[in-house]
Amino acid sequence: MIESTDRTPLPRDFFDRPVLEVAPDLLGRTLVRLTDDGPIELRLTEVEAYAGEADPGSHAYRGRTARNAVMFGPPGHAYVYFTYGMWHCLNLVCGPEGFASGVLLRAGEVRVGRDLARKRRLSARYDKELAKGPARLATALDVDRTLDGTDACAGPDSPLSVLTGTPTPPDQVLTGPRTGVGGDGATHPWRFWIDGDPTVSPYRAHTPRRRRA
What we know:
The protein has 213 residues and is mostly beta strands. The chain has four helices and nine strands. The chain has helices spanning 12-15, 19-25, 114-120, 134-140, and strands spanning 6-9, 30-35, 38-50, 78-83, 87-94, 101-112, 160-165, 173-176, 191-194. Strands 1, 2, 3, 4, 5, 6, 7, 8 and 9 form a nine-stranded antiparallel beta sheet that branches. The radius of gyration is 16 Å and the shape is globular. The protein starts with 5 loop residues before the first strand and ends in a 19-residue tail after the last strand.
């Protein structure tokens, strides 16, 4: 049985805080995606924090570009990027405008619209795998670059929004290095997840790419 969750939308002030405060506080919240076929809702179980120009692991480390411009905008907006030529990833911008910090949504438990998510995640053997990893999460929720810049605090008609849900108690939140981040940002313990949750993705250390001859 799924416990009753708070349907109150998170206000912009929630996101207008330091990224290391926002990231763990997103665990247990309800992410709502309105698609043309109906709503999909998931409980966030794993996230990663990225601190903009102060963080070697961030897309904004070297400054503003056309790709990462949304990260420098107001908090509470979605930053969607395309990676490896095949996957999208969904982030929520936070912190003061102009500082480019954001939270990567790595995993979640789909609670509403499982049938819709399954149609997009045909390779998932079990429901716990529908959004187990950032690319899988974006795929299950039909997220692509058309949602880049979406205001998640715009109200119930927004294609993306975040509800209060059931915040995770601090003693159930674990933290460790971010997945796949190398260089000076490799050891930052800025990945946060709910202890023991089956939808959390496995940790993978960064593997340097070999340059082609």
